[in-house]
């Protein structure tokens, strides 16, 4: 990404700085979804270096979510959410070892899609 593109991305992101926490969380999950979808597409195009870059981005997002959210504040739901993130992360790891990489990515995307929609629908 060029410096200009990074600046434009930062500027676009700044519009979300005053958003409520749910909007920020929705944006993060949408970025996670895009990263995984991009990894899947790159794999299908035979661009393994790009696939790895997108998969790494998804892994970084999942790691950040897993290490920064206070799951205990949400009680049992928080524990379930933590397990969900771990399952998604495990899916990314399974994809890296699978013969059918695209299918494993698709399974993960199918899990994330309703979650992303739910975060955007409730306000």
Please give a structural write-up:
It is a single chain. This protein has a single domain, classed as Flagellar protein FliS (Four Helix Bundle (Hemerythrin (Met), subunit A), Up-down Bundle), CATH 1.20.120. The chain is built from five helices and no strands. The protein is globular, with a radius of gyration of 15 Å.
Short description:
By secondary structure, the protein is mainly α. Helix content is 82%, strand content 0%.
CATH homologous superfamily identity: Flagellar protein FliS
Strand elements, count: 0
What is the CATH architecture term?
Up-down Bundle
State the distance separating the first and last CA atoms. 33 Å
Structural class: mainly alpha
Order of helices and strands: HHHHH
Average residue pLDDT:
87
Oligomeric assembly: single chain
CATH topology: Four Helix Bundle (Hemerythrin (Met), subunit A)
Instruction: Please summarize the sheet with the most strands.
Output: none
Task: State the helical fraction.
Answer: over 70%
- Any idea what the shape is? globular
Which key terms come to mind for this protein?
single chain, 123 residues, mainly alpha, globular, Four Helix Bundle (Hemerythrin (Met), subunit A), 82% helix
Layout of secondary structure:
Blueprint: H1 3-14, H2 21-44, H3 48-68, H4 75-97, H5 101-121
Helix pairs in contact: 2-3, 2-5, 3-4, 4-5
